[in-house]
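Hello support,

Our group uses your service weekly, and this is the first time we've seen a run hang past the timeout. The protein is Aminotransferase class V domain-containing protein. I'm not sure whether the cause is the sequence or the server load. Input pasted verbatim:
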Amino acid sequence: MEPANDDDHRANGSDHSHLAKKPKLSTRSSSLITDSEIREEFAHHQTGIARINNGSFGSCPASIIAAQKRWQLRFLQQPDDFFLNHLQKRILHSRTIIKDVINAEHVDEVSLVDNATTAAAIVLQHVGWAFAEGRFKKGDAVVMLHCAFQAVKKSIEAYVTRAGGSVIVVHLPFPLRSEEEIVAEFRKALAKGKANGKKVRLAIIDHITSMPCVVIPVRDLVKICREEGVERVFVDAAHAIGSVPVDVKEIGADFYVSNLHKWFFCPPSVAFLYCRKSPVSPDLHHPVVSHEYGNGLAIESAWIGTRDYSSQLVIPEVLEFINRFEGGIEGIRLRNHKAVIEMGQMLANAWGTSLGCPPDMSPGMAMVGLPVNLKILSDKDALNLRNHLRDHFAVEVPIHYEEIKELQDGDGYVTGYARISHQVYNKVDDYIKLKDAILQLVRDGVTCKMLHSE
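Update from on-call engineer: The timeout came from a worker crash unrelated to the input. Re-ran successfully.
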């Protein structure tokens, strides 16, 4: 835990001579983690709860919580020394690890921020300034998926539309049967954005949509953006790292963000924002302005005033934890994907439904159709069912309502889906608990309308 000697406290740029060798991203050592050790790492989880919602907030192992507390104490013991002599060097080390994990060209392309919401604000603030300052014409477009995260939609409202930009929404069908359906709708949206001589200034593409959960063919869509003259591409990959392969060079976007506290075992909250080196890079700034303003986004982000930076500092310990598993991050990813598809198909068979998209379009999460007898006919119904499962069956799982536009009601059609996750701490019993809870509600003749009065 003892940091090495530091150079200038602001040297978190290009001098890497003091850093360790490139970190291992996988391992096949004889000291692989055991099942009992996994249970110990997550023993702090509330007992008796079928926790099949890793996607929302992630999960932090006990050893990483302990490491975080050590870093917090290091700061509190002697904050001046820690700030002046250690903090920036340790953040640089964490950034360098992420650079290697995502295959970025240079560490200067990697900033650590609180979460994907902060990263969206950074990118959309930059785009908003371009509209406000006349570099982009009024009415030029930002293209986004209709299922983009709500915080991204709000950032577009706050920074882009108020500055004169327009928004083109890509409406994706669900359930999905193929990637081609996504590509076709995306091309239509780009054509609409370019109509009447306008330009698409930014495309926002989810790598994994949240609700409903689908892996988007992000490389194909970025390539299409380049072919169609889209100026900048921002990939919102909040769920990606640790859940799908991430190679930012291969993806080719200008901006790419992923949370590290969802599927990469970090404590809340930390994310990386990759900004490909380009002429626009110096004009990106953290929305919280502190005394590092103007020194580049990565350095600005590494000091936004006195706060707890420990979630950024534990990244080396997190990598050590990941490498205790056979195959490292890729081994964990593959096992989670295999397990969530098996559990999703088990649930669908029991409920007489199906998965919301093909297995290869599911990450460590899967959308499983719920029985039509529950009559999930609104977002409120979905929320009420979720609360009922938590309060009465000790099952934590998000519920999604999918409107069937051509029908007045959902009779005979699946309109509700459970978004199940699988992480290393999950057991088959968690999914059996969900299966039995839903079957009991169906046997008892319960509909979501009955849950409104609770």
